[in-house]
Amino acid sequence: MGLLEDALRAYAKYEDRTTDPDTPPSGQALLYVKNGVVHSIDDAGAVTEYGSGGGGGGGDFTLITSETLGADAANIELTGIPGTYRSLMLIATLRSNRSGSVDDGVFVSVGPLAGADTGNNYRFRWIASGTDSASGTGRTGFSLPTGAPGASAAAVQRGSLKVVIDRYATTGQERVAQMEASGSGRYALGIGTWENTTDPIQVMQLRPESGTQFLTGSTAALYGLGT
Q1: Predicted local confidence at residue 211, as pLDDT
Q2: In sequence order, which residues have a C-beta less than 8 Å from that of residue 3 and are 6 or more positions away?
Q3: Contact 81, 64 (CB under 8 A)
Q4: pLDDT tens, 2-15?
Q5: Better-scored residue on pLDDT, 227 or 186
Q6: Which residues have C-beta within 8 Å of that of residue 189, sequence separation ≥ 6?
Q7: Top-confidence residue, 89 or 33
Q8: 209, 104 in Cβ contact below 8 A?
Q9: Residues 6+ apart with CB under 8 A from 14
Q10: How would residue 22 be classed by pLDDT, with cut points 50, 70 and 90?
Q11: Which residue from 5, 147, 155, 227 has the highest number of Cβ atoms inside 10 Å of its Cβ?
């Protein structure tokens, strides 16, 4: 059982269901566990499975692009995202230069070919290990409060981040991301919404929340699934 499934049971109070739930209200999406695998259902009743072997129409995830930092950098950018898949999955292993802290959050901004949207155009809701939780608007990217150990963490530590966006190229609707991350002894899961309804997602940018750079060796890979 993966981190996201365990955290859903412990904190979001979801049960491991055997059937899909009812279609959520307009403009909303629901993340849930069915038969031990994470699924989502959108306001059109479309169900996506996120598990071993993939979902969203079946088939494996295909690597679109990846980036590994050869030097410290303010961000990691992934470009050339085609509109031919149904879903995107981002997997990143990160380390931040945030001083005086063992942990740092991560922003993931998306946008068209012109560049990632880093304006205050994202809503978020997350829950972290312990009793931490937060929600709000006006963020500059999909965000979680962990995912990149800071300067005070042990030198060998790296954070892990996973972001899944279904129907990423579909305009006329907001795009919703399901997220999970772990840092220096902390983990979190959440849902984020990009409020833009006119542009497809063709680029993606990762930034540390409080630090100024990701460290050398930080890496991100982007996969596509389905058609």
Answers
A1: 97
A2: 180, 182, 187, 189
A3: yes
A4: 444 444 444 333 44
A5: 186
A6: 3, 4, 7, 8, 11, 12, 126, 127, 144, 178, 179, 180, 181
A7: 89
A8: yes
A9: 8, 32, 33
A10: confident
A11: 147
Instruction: Give the residue carrying structure tokens 């494996």.
Output: 60
- Residue 56 is given by DSSP the state S
What pLDDT was estimated at residue 44? 80
Tokens of 120: 């205050």
- Give the pair of three-digit tokens for residue 92: 């990143």
What is the reported pTM?
A: 0.75
Other beta carbons within 10 Å of 83: 12
Distance CA 125, CA 105 (A): 14
Please name the residue that has the structure tokens 């409080």.
210
Contact 95, 214 (CB under 8 A): yes
Domains and CATH numbers, the chain: 60-225 (2.60.120)
pLDDT higher than 80, residue 197? yes
Give the whole-angstrom CA distance, residue 158 versus residue 173.
35
Closest CA to 147 of 131, 166, 126: 126
State how far the Cα of 31 lies from the Cα of 20, in Å rounded to an integer: 10
What is the DSSP-derived secondary structure letter of residue 70?
A: S
User: How many CB atoms are located within 10 Å of the residue 44 CB?
Assistant: 11
3-state secondary structure of 10: helix
Tokens of 114: 């012109």
- 78 close to 161: Cβ distance less than 8 angstroms: no
End-to-end CA distance of the chain: 27
